[in-house]
Amino acid sequence: QTSIYQFYNDERLKKAQFLIKETDFPLKEIAFICGFNDYTNFYKAFKKKYGITPSEFKQNSDLKKGLEEQ
Q1: pLDDT tens profile 33-62
Q2: CA–CA separation, 45 vs 36, rounded Å?
Q3: Model pTM?
Q4: How many Å apart are CA 22 and CA 19, to the nearest integer?
Q5: How many CA atoms lie within 13 A of 49 on its CB side?
């Protein structure tokens, strides 16, 4: 069962994942846009949900974009 807080947090993380993938905004700015006042909290929540850090996800997304553009 999902609490309201957990649902809200998951939605914020989905938005962050989208922004990391689709924009070139700095990770700290994405964290703030998605409602995380502290980057450390964002980092921990992202890693817990997705199993990788935001920067690893960004690197993987950038790599995939590069391959798609070739």
Answers
A1: 999 999 999 999 999 999 999 999 999 987
A2: 10
A3: 0.85
A4: 5
A5: 19
Query: Beta-carbon neighbour count of residue 16 at 10 Å?
Result: 24
Helix axes 4-22, 54-69, angle to 10 degrees: 40
Structure tokens at 34: 């998605």
Token digits of residue 35 = 């409602």
Q: What is the mean pLDDT of the chain?
A: 91
34 exposed, middle or buried (CB, 10 Å; 0-12, 13-18, 19+)?
buried
Q: Residue 25: which residues within 8 A CB-CB, separation 6 or more?
A: 19, 33
- Reported as a pLDDT band with limits 50, 70 and 90, residue 69 is low
